[in-house]
């Protein structure tokens, strides 16, 4: 396995503990637009998709453009109000990202958020210039289409073999596979590791700092077998 130059991260459920806020915001949007609620598992199952794709998955029967637009607005308003106090980073994320930067890795974000939504949460952290590049679903193609990864690679001048995608949803892992890229599944976000292992990730972890150990060579990086920490 070649040494990586570029680390690409999903946002919600991978770097920040925001899943509960997404679930709440989806439910508030449904209530305010008089649509039926969906259960937690259904909502967590769409996390990672762009918002239009997420709504279409939750409400496949919905074809009223005005109602869809109202749902999107209500979701965004409620979520952004919650993010006045930024969602916390998962344990070990801040320290690991700083270590990765000091080691010379290039860092990127590939997210199902809108550009407006991502910029809002990055600004809340003072991170608007933190990453080398970020890509959002509404300015490219939604996951699992590999286009946002391909655009990140082109921006950074890095080949797929020298990059790795880190995420908490099947959409992240499928996107990486379609881009010809290694991927790391994290089991503390929207989906369990048992579900993510079905997507054949290169590595599966339960804590973010385990990624740092792996990249530092504490595990056998020559193996293509998934290392599952428990």
List the topology elements:
Blueprint: E1 6-9, H1 19-32, H2 40-44, H3 51-58, H4 65-82, H5 93-102, E2 106-111, H6 115-125, E3 133-136, H7 147-156, E4 163-167, H8 170-178, E5 182-186, H9 193-196, E6 203-205, H10 209-215
Parallel strand pairs: 1-2, 1-4, 2-3, 4-5, 5-6
GO biological process, one term: DNA repair
Cofactor: Mg(2+)
GO molecular function: metal ion binding; phosphoglycolate phosphatase activity
Main sheet properties? 6 strands, parallel
Computed structural class = alpha/beta
Number of strands: 6
Overall mean pLDDT stands at 92
Weakly predicted, low-confidence segments: 221-225
Provide the CATH top-level class of the largest domain: Alpha Beta
CATH topology of the largest domain: Rossmann fold
């Amino acid at each position: 396995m070649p040494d990586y130059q570029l680390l690409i991260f999903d946002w919600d459920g991978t770097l920040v503990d925001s899943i509960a806020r997404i679930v709440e915001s989806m439910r508030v949007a449904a209530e305010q637009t008089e649509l039926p609620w969906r259960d937690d598992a259904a909502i967590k199952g769409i996390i990672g998709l762009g918002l239009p794709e997420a709504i279409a998955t939750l409400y496949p029967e919905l074809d009223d453009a005005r109602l869809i637009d109202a749902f999107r607005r209500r979701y965004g308003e409620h979520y952004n109000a919650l993010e006045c106090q930024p969602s916390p980073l998962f344990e070990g994320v801040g320290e690991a990202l700083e270590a990765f930067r000091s080691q010379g890795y290039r860092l990127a974000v590939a997210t199902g958020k809108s550009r407006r939504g991502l910029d809002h949460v990055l600004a809340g952290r003072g991170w608007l210039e933190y990453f080398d590049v970020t890509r959002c679903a509404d300015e490219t193609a939604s996951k699992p289409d590999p286009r946002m990864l391909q655009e990140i690679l082109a921006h950074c001048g890095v080949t797929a073999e020298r990059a790795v995608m880190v995420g908490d949803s099947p959409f992240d892992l499928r996107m990486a596979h379609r881009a010809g890229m290694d991927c790391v599944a994290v089991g503390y976000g929207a989906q369990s590791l048992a579900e993510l292992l079905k997507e054949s990730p290169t590595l599966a972890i339960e804590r973010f700092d385990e990624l740092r150990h792996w990249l530092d060579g504490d595990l056998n990086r020559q193996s293509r077998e998934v290392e599952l920490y428990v």
